[in-house]
Model the fold of this input.
Amino acid sequence: MSKKNLAILMRARMRSTNPTKLSLFQFPKEIPSNPQENDHIVRNSNQGIGTSSDFGNTGRSYDVVRETMHSAISASKTGVIDITLTDFQEGYFSLSLEDREKLLLALAKEYDVNREQVRELVKQYLGLETPSSDDGGQQVHSPKKEALSSVFYRIEWNLRHALKPTYETLFERLNTHPGGLRFLSILRADLLSILTKENSPSLRTLESYLKEKLGMWLSPATLELHQITWDDPASLLEKIVAYEAVHPISNLLDLKRRLGIGRRCFGYFHPSIPGEPLIFIEVALMETVAQTIQEVLWDNPPIPENQATSALFYSISSTQPGLAGINLGKFLIKRVITLVKKDMPHVSTFATLSPIPGFMKWLLSKLSSQSRFAGDDHSGSTQSNSPSSTFSERVLLPDEEQALMSLSDDSSFGSNGMEVLMNLLSAKNSNWATSPRMLPVLEPILMRLCARYLLQEKKRGKALDSVANFHLQNGAMVERINWMADRSEKGIHQSGGIMVNYVYRLENIEDYAQSYFGSGKIHASPGIHSRL
Amino acid sequence: MSKKNLAILMRARMRSTNPTKLSLFQFPKEIPSNPQENDHIVRNSNQGIGTSSDFGNTGRSYDVVRETMHSAISASKTGVIDITLTDFQEGYFSLSLEDREKLLLALAKEYDVNREQVRELVKQYLGLETPSSDDGGQQVHSPKKEALSSVFYRIEWNLRHALKPTYETLFERLNTHPGGLRFLSILRADLLSILTKENSPSLRTLESYLKEKLGMWLSPATLELHQITWDDPASLLEKIVAYEAVHPISNLLDLKRRLGIGRRCFGYFHPSIPGEPLIFIEVALMETVAQTIQEVLWDNPPIPENQATSALFYSISSTQPGLAGINLGKFLIKRVITLVKKDMPHVSTFATLSPIPGFMKWLLSKLSSQSRFAGDDHSGSTQSNSPSSTFSERVLLPDEEQALMSLSDDSSFGSNGMEVLMNLLSAKNSNWATSPRMLPVLEPILMRLCARYLLQEKKRGKALDSVANFHLQNGAMVERINWMADRSEKGIHQSGGIMVNYVYRLENIEDYAQSYFGSGKIHASPGIHSRL
Done:
């Protein structure tokens, strides 16, 4: 790497506290448009590209952008389309989030399906006889029947097209316009952000439609797998630094190590979004499957690569919040496994060391609701015959209840085990995580509850935990949970310091993915089942 | 180029009389599957790829392929899907055209839209109120209204998806499967071939659906423009030799010249169909716009490139009959013009020297039908009051009638001018084209009729001639027609030896393309108008 590139990278590091760091699984509620994109657009404007460079970037009003959007949808000359699309992107970035919302709502409503036309066609459609399944077959041809069939197929064709909203035109035009795919991803990030505060069915429909389109355009066939190394351009490495959200990259040395001996980094790239991966995965080559993230991040020096038998996926980061819910990772992991196996046949175990981002949130919410019921029932036991029992459940075992209450002897942590646990876990300083007296008491309780959370807590038939859901739908199984595996502030806060190893076995990936997809079955090792 | 490559190229030349040569505009009625593709598939089978390699390539029965097609559509595991898709492609190539037709008919009918589901949804849809255009707007939110809107959008969404035929799954899976896009193009070529003999509305619908999909997947944004030179792999150059159909490449020297000084060759490539262009264009750099193809093919040596002021597109060939009707050429020509202009700013004229493939066919059919009317009317004049006059029209001017009759003095060519012309033109030896006595008589007649054919004869509002339609929709204008511009047997046979120059003016391309698209307006020079 040249000195110049290094300098650029250093600048990138300094900036990297500024841009929103985004992981695959957690998106901030407020997603600002990527400031870098904005810079780029402003530069373009200064160069006089686009027709409206006479408008200042901030002075451009909503109405002008609204008008440009209309032109971008309705223009028919390719030259005009190109200019208006560039102009529309530029204008969009200049809008406040409020104005963007207004604009997107206008897009959703005024460029929706032409429902009068649909109703007209639907009526015609119902009036026609469905063609019998023998036209054109071995039977005698009847020209009259053929003509009727043709009419039917034509009306059906027209109906199918009439059901497409007009805004599809904008999406399709942007998809083939330079920078347009990236812009669409930002548009969707804005939509998702707006929809967390606002329930507009038409906006929700616009968002779903865009998601479907993006999923199609970013199909695995269009993505290129590329190993990211220290020889890659600094502009690309800068992105890795900025987007790595699972285990932040602390300095240049850290980055270099993650791309060096005993490590691999692979990214999925799309030709229309050059120079930055849509998703990337960091791999550590190890002798055994690591139980703690400390082993992975601090094994200096790493073992020689020819001694490695395990490939550990210790970080997967998505870079585009606007692609949330589009499973880019599935084929990534399968392809990375194939690639690593080919390169290093002696590596036979493929596992992750993953965070459990939803564990504490779920547990605290469960404890909060259940300790209320327990409060009604002054016996202090969750085994209750009180009227609220319908909703109450046994969160803690009697032993656990007792052990927790014994902790609260010296201070009044709470009136029952759940309250004690809740108060301990939600304390800001997280003292429990460094207390030699509390840790042995909490370990069996939190490990059991964590196993329950991973294997039994579901939402719409799928694992409640987003990372669990990600790996399970990709065909992994839950292998092992590890106590105090991530002692970072975030690790303690999100999952009580527990991390989980998901294991991928090539021979099972397809079966497991399918049974999870079909029936929500979560495959897990006997070891983890025994904790329940 | 290495000796080995040359040897391969020579072999390609020897084979090139064998594969069907296909131009952009004329497709043989019977399109056999590409024999090379077949070879490839057989090799795969011998290597034991796919689950059914135990079936001999020829012994594989229709039922097996039918079953594989079903699996390829209904399988849900990606591994199985991949195998069945490969297997299906292989199996398809082993089928006779009759069995392919049977298979495609099964695909069209049994994997069609689920119409019961559509009817059910349509009824639900009609029962719902269309959401008013103010939900989520500035007005007070009504949860009930929002819920109703949500239901409406969901039903509409379901209806949209229900209207997609099941065979879309096969198309989409093939599109992202290696070799699948090329296979789909062959599938469509077969469909087009079957539909010339058979009118099956369901098969027609299948074909239209596939065309729409292919058009989407091969959008200009996905195509890469690449200049083809003598340094390209022989395997690619071999394709140029094999597919050049407008002015066949006669030997290696000829090929080298078309890629050498004063010449350019550009191709559009798709990443999924590597190593062969979907369409390619040959360009000659000249001092003036050539009037005859002889000047282009035989200007040995060409003028120095820095003296060139005109770029002449003298041959455009499409390689995939299955992509007929998908306008790949539009952006090709625009981009080639831009590229050439950038490279050579002194080139200011961009024109074609194009065949008129439909002229003779149209003229002979017109003469044949009209001379029948003239035969009824024994005055020998086309100006007639006979009962058949409703359909009769004046094909020849009185002068022309007279001139033609004067030719038939020495032999009884016919009883009227049209008969004489018809007999002369349809004579197998095409003696007229070398007769010093006939040529001066025929020139003004054929040139006038040719101008009429190009500027006035239409089909569904568009130019009847396929090459004319191609260039006009791309924004060209008809500049000039040239007498005895192509003296080859094919040239005489197709267009009486006449060729046409279409001219592209960058500043007019968009306007002309649009007015042609909108109203069918054909832009032409005053010179050619004056011939009418």
Observations:
- Chain A touches chain B through 54 residues (CB under 8 Å).
- Residues 1-59, 378-388 of chain A have pLDDT under 50 and may be disordered.
